[in-house]
Amino acid sequence: MGWYCEGRLWNTNREAPRSGAAAADKKDNMEVLTHLRLMAGYNLRMNRQVYAGAASLSDEQLNKPLGAYFGSVLGTLNHIMVGDLLWLHRFRRHSEAYLSLQALKELPQPTTLDTVIYDRFGALGAARSIVDEAILTWVSEELKPAELSQLLSYQNAKGEAATRDFGELICNLFNHQTHHRGQVSTLLSQLGVDIGPTDFLLDIPQQ
Fold first, then answer.
1. Considering the chain, what percentage of its residues have pLDDT values greater than 70?
2. Domain of 124: which CATH number?
């Protein structure tokens, strides 16, 4: 059994450990963590490019309805932030050692997926930088390999209880960002803005 994170298959076999299984699981978790660190760096780079491009637009262009799921460039960027804050709020409850995530309690705590938490682009950009640095610090310095195979219990935006694999949920965080950031890049392109190279390939170290 396994799960995919940006195209990679990870082992999630929860059967009783056999000979050598513990060592294999430890190696698998370390590989997952290495990948998550790359994704955190990719998230930081791409958001800088997206926000640099969006900064060239007027308020009217940022708020112009363009037929996207969340309407406009600003609406979609807000949705990405909402998704991040909802999940990071759940993640920080997993361990008091996640100090970088604990610090995000000072930011707004959305309750619905379509909440516009920042109606001004400048404020949204400032919060984006704080969140991206926190994510990078968390996966680089605080998140432990063994925690990736643990379970996380939480309530979704509808108040429904759920329990899922913690490592998979972190991958969901990055997948959600990538999905909607792709929509933003299309909207920006329609407005004549080129944000530059978007391939994750650029963040994969050469061997």
1. 87
2. 1.20.120.450
